[in-house]
Write a structure and sequence with these properties.
The chain is an alpha+beta fold. The radius of gyration is 17 Å and the shape is globular. The protein starts with a helix and ends in a 27-residue tail after the last strand.
Length: 241
């Protein structure tokens, strides 16, 4: 059943693909980002170098904290996208676990994510898809990775959980665009996640307009000439000075 649900998710786009793990194919365990801070700093420094090259500035001009927040935002999109699409399109949350997820380092674009066969029986279902997504994806998978990035770069949990909410908002916008027939289900799932549990008070959804506004800033504006995101709590970018 998970295979069929994940196939439906993958059809939405590259941010929703979960590959099958293959040994010796450059896959790295997701838990590495939790237990080895060097893996986090390696990924963030790679992104800083890329941003410096893109903006034609010295890498010292690219803030570590802002870059770490942006890097995590991209990873969060990959961790919540497939499972949220499964919930909306197949009415199920797939059995994804921290110890059976893998990633690859790439220069740009969506992080490649793969899954291997998890050990043990799947966890018991919670009451409702939003509660299940929270209990099986946000709490045991996203939270430890988030804490690792936040601790390494001293970033507020409010900012980082806002990144997760923003990632979910973006994911559900893409799901709705690909499958307009499931737009009401997508909005309902997102609203329930914002009303209860881990993502409570991270943002506000205008269901009539299908727009989301977070209650924090991802720090993107601190990258030179970056501006602000469409769902930012800020109306305009503050002066970097």
């Amino acid at each position: 059943m998970d295979d069929e649900a994940l196939d439906l998710a993958a059809a939405v786009g590259p941010y929703f693909v979960v590959e099958q793990w293959v040994a010796d194919a450059d896959w790295r365990p997701l838990r590495e980002l939790v237990e080895q801070p060097a893996a986090v700093t390696e990924r963030v420094e790679s992104a800083r170098q890329a941003l410096a090259s893109r903006t034609h500035l010295p890498v010292t001009e690219i803030e570590e904290r802002a870059t770490a927040s942006i890097v995590f935002l991209g990873l969060a999109a990959r961790l919540v996208g497939p499972s949220s699409a499964c919930a909306v399109l197949a009415d199920r949350v797939p059995d994804l676990r921290l110890d059976s997820l893998w990633w690859k380092s790439v220069a740009g674009g969506p992080w490649p994510i793969a899954r291997s066969t998890p050990n043990g029986s799947p966890p018991a279902a919670s009451s409702g898809l939003a509660a299940e997504l929270d209990a099986r994806i946000l709490t045991p998978i996203v939270a430890p990775v988030l804490e690792s990035f936040a601790d390494t770069y001293a970033i507020s949990p409010q900012v980082m959980w806002g990144n997760v909410a923003s990632s979910l908002g973006g994911a559900l916008t893409m799901i709705t665009a690909a499958r307009p027939d499931r737009s009401a289900a997508a909005a309902q799932l997102f609203q329930e996640l914002l009303d209860h549990g881990t993502l409570q008070d991270t943002g506000d959804l205008d269901r009539a307009r299908r727009t989301f506004r977070r209650r924090s800033c991802c720090l993107f504006y601190r990258v030179p000439d970056a501006g602000i995101c469409g769902d930012c709590v800020l109306d305009e970018a503050p002066s970097r000075a």
